[in-house]
Write a structure and sequence with these properties.
about 650 residues; alpha+beta; six-stranded antiparallel sheet; about 35% strand; globular
Length: about 650
């Protein structure tokens, strides 16, 4: 790399740091201008043979960055990197913020591939800075670079002071990460390109995709909230930064997987079953595609396992050194539940080192913000908690937190605070039972895991449908697409203005105007407003679940909501340009009524006047009962 290029890189880094420091400033426009300036300068620092790829903390799942509070914390980070021969340079760049309420001695230590590479003191006042460390190619091991961030410190040597009153923290920006300068000419195999592809994805499909191509595109978009469908390829940026990945769907004459060079590398999916190629690309077996072309990819007939471990979901195996509290987080999407199963409980295995104190550590399990169970740690080799999940807790995406809390021995004027090891063991798993009929949208994930057919009236519905299926299908779901005709077997998704051929819809559109009202009769939605909504309904189609998507005015357009829109609880949902507007269950909820003002049937009258009818029946019954008692009394009265 030239001296000018190195100088420009440092200028770009300075601009990026200024943008990070100004992110909290009210003038967001100024911060955006700094970001654009930093990007334009960075593009000038690379030649045509090099390509810059930044793997951020956000891509690793830390959407809000990494934050460690108090005076201790450890975080292990694994950044995916292709073969070392494809990399020209690697460097770690982590912008951070730090502060403490009181004077303290704190530091941050960074290790790469288990070797200490940097240690830095942190001031007591508010401080912003960046950690920048060059990474050797030899530090890439098994396709990853292992980074460990250790944060520690102390307030005072006075052991009578509880160190937790420091109010200190260290926060790493989600925009920080590993910056890799890649050799374009070395990214030749499908595995190399797949390993380094950004999460932001463009999927280029033909104007009239075949059913097989539509199935692959649908699964890729539904499994990635950052993916978009394009019918025409948008020219890539001429700069040296790789910010968007691209997958191109071509006909059956093309190889199943193929790399394509250009301004940025892309991958072509072809063959008779492009969905099988997409599943290989998104699985842990993508490394088998070690050539520039791979043909004959087929889906496996092997049945999925009927067991779901924390490790299958990327559960953190790291050992934490805990002074007062540490936690492990596991995400459970409904799409990862094995076919035909439901989660009925959680088994958590913990190994917690003793600290020699009289108060044992406490292990707690929380799911979706609800504390499920806690237990004290005994002297056995491990602690096991078996928790039954209460009804109504699961949804499309679930967060499980396992925590360990210790009584800090510091503060008793005898011991300084000391961290002790604890680990969430890989034998932790979910308890599975047989799934019953789907009563809520999220329960479709386990039914669809066996295979689901998406029925479209025309290919133009593909984009809008894909963005409504986040949380219900992903890249691993066996998806089939058909145009206009429902399958004879298995669950299916029906996308049409007209109702599916099977089942009874919760909301009918063949009985005149529809009105949503509360129990007092106040109208919540009707007329044009209701008709313009995209409506999702879950119904039973002769023993198989059917999801009916009735397109509205904003169907196929991007949602204004930043977060992915997922159909979770409920069996009816109204969706507009903002996202999911209203979702409820017609079986459990009693606050919303579906009315048909023009329907004069007996059932509508019974629904409308049911309270009066119930009161009248009760009154007539009471009068009849009184008359009956009166007659019995008179019959038993002695005559004369």
């Amino acid at each position: 790399m030239t001296m000018l290029g190195s100088h420009l890189q440092k200028i770009a880094t300075t601009f990026a740091m200024l943008a990070f420091m100004g992110a909290a400033d009210p003038d967001e426009a100024a911060a955006q201008r700094l970001d654009k300036t930093a990007a334009s300068i960075a593009e000038q620092s690379f030649g045509d043979a090099a390509l810059q790829r930044t793997i951020t903390l956000s891509e690793l799942g830390f959407a809000n960055g990494v934050e460690m509070t108090g005076l201790s914390g450890i975080r292990d980070l694994y950044f995916p990197i292709a073969r070392p021969s494809t990399v020209e340079t690697l460097r770690l760049l982590l912008p951070y913020r730090s502060a403490a309420a009181f004077d303290s001695l704190r530091y941050v230590k960074v290790s790469i591939a288990d070797q200490p590479r940097l240690t830095r003191p942190l001031d007591s006042g508010e401080q912003s800075g960046e950690i920048e460390i060059p990474i050797d190619q030899d530090d890439v091991q098994n396709g990853f670079v292992h980074i460990r961030i250790e944060y520690s410190g102390a307030m005072t040597e006075d052991r009578c002071v509880d160190q937790r009153v420091s109010g200190a923290y260290l926060s790493l920006s989600p925009l920080g990460g590993v910056i890799a300068t890649l050799r374009r000419d070395a990214l030749t195999s499908v595995a190399d390109v797949a390993a380094m592809m950004p999460r932001s994805l463009e999927i280029v499909i033909p104007t009239t995709p075949s059913e097989a191509q539509a199935a692959a595109a649908l699964a890729l978009v539904a499994g990635n909230p950052d993916a978009v469908l394009l019918s025409t390829a948008v020219p890539a940026s001429n700069g040296g930064e790789w910010k968007k990945a691209r997958i191109i769907l071509e006909g059956p004459e093309a190889p199943s997987l193929q790399t394509r060079t250009g301004t940025t590398p892309s991958i072509v999916l072809g063959g008779d079953d492009p969905l099988a190629a997409a599943q290989l690309l998104r699985s842990r077996w993508y490394a088998l595609a070690s050539k520039s072309e791979v043909g004959g990819v087929r889906r496996s007939d092997r049945q999925p396992a009927n067991r779901l471990d924390f490790g299958d979901l990327g559960g953190p195996p790291a050992i934490l050194r805990i002074v007062d509290r540490g936690n492990w987080n596991v995400s459970l999407p409904a799409t990862r539940i094995p076919p035909g199963k439901r989660v009925s409980g959680v088994v958590v295995d913990m190994s917690v080192a003793g600290d020699g104190g009289k108060t044992p550590p406490v292990v707690g399990v929380t799911m979706n913000g609800l504390l499920l169970a806690s237990a004290t740690v005994t002297d056995e080799e491990r602690t096991r908690l078996r928790v039954d999940l209460p009804g109504g807790l699961m949804t499309a995406r679930n967060q499980i937190e396992v925590s360990t809390t210790r009584q800090v021995r510091g503060g008793d004027c005898a011991y300084a605070p000391q961290g002790y090891d604890a680990q969430l063991l890989p034998s932790s798993h979910f308890v599975l039972d047989d799934a019953g009929p789907a009563d809520d949208f999220f329960e479709l994930g386990a039914h669809f895991a066996k295979g689901v057919t998406v029925v479209l009236q025309n290919p133009a519905m593909l984009n809008g449908t894909a963005h409504l299926l986040h949380g219900l299908i992903d890249e691993h779901t066996p998806v089939h697409v058909r145009y206009r005709t429902a399958p004879k077997e298995g669950p299916y998704i029906w996308v049409s203005d007209l109702a599916p051929p099977e089942g009874a819809p919760k909301i009918r559109f063949d009985a005149g105007p529809v009105r949503l009202a509360d129990t007092s009769g106040t109208v919540l939605m009707d007329g044009t407003d209701l008709q313009s909504q995209t409506i999702a309904q879950l119904q039973d189609g002769d023993g198989r679940p059917v999801l009916w998507l009735r397109p509205g005015a904003a169907f196929g357009k991007p949602f204004e909501a930043a977060a992915p829109q997922e159909l979770g609880r409920g069996d009816v949902a109204f969706i507009d340009h903002r996202g999911i507007n209203l979702a409820f269950s017609t079986k459990r909820d009693r606050l919303i009524e579906i009315r048909y003002p023009d329907d004069r049937s007996l059932m509508q009258y019974l629904k409308k006047y049911r309270l009066g009818i119930i009161g009248g029946v009760w009154l007539i019954g009471s009068i009849g009962f009184v008359l009956l008692l009166r007659g019995i009394y008179r019959a038993r009265r002695p005559k004369g």
